[in-house]
Description:
There is one protein chain. It is built from nine helices and no strands. Helix 1 (2-15) packs across helix 3, helix 3 runs antiparallel to helix 4 and helix 4 (56-82) packs antiparallel against helix 5 (87-106). The protein is 73% helix and 0% strand. It has two domains: 2-114, no CATH class; 120-215, no CATH class. The mean pLDDT is 89.
Amino acid sequence: xxxxxxxxxxxxxxxxxLQTRELYSLRSKxxxxxxxxxxxxxSTAFFVLFPYWxxxxxxxxxxxxxxxxxxxxxxxxxxxxxxKDSALxxxxxxxxxxxxxxxxxxxxxxxxxxxxxxxxxxxxxxxVIWVLPYIEHYLRVARVxxxxxxxxxxxxxxxxxxxxxxxxxxxxxxxxxxxxxxRIWRALNIPGTxxxxxxWLIALGATALGKKVILGFLV
Length: 219
């Protein structure tokens, strides 16, 4: 499963933190607009495959996955042109991508991953910090937020501090209250600012569950 988690990390990075608004808007130009995003996935997958860059079968795999990534995203763009973006399209798109990654990881020789980096934890970090808000949006989970870039960045900071606090534990649990301090400051200075309590609870819960599954302990 080591190569699967490497590929999953590349996918999550390419589809969420590395998919800028400019790249997303390019998709409206059709297949040509989707290609840059496929290039981002290919580059990220190449990076996470270190130190196995000299293994041709892995390079062929990520090239094939990049092409399939472009094909799936192009199909999603065509479907979005006929109907509004929906939970079905979002989860269907992500499910197909992850299924292809899993199948691809089964057809190549396994990687003897015994290094210090736990790619499962890196995947969990990207999931908690960047992916959860999209899932909450499509599941229509009530969230108190603001569409401004400032509040989006604030949410990333909050979930990042929550993740580190729970994963490392000990004195690092103090990062959790540190994470909410900027929001408190905004509430004191910007009338109408509300606290995304449910978002915080989901982030903390997902991190704790992921830590238990991956590392086998919570404290």
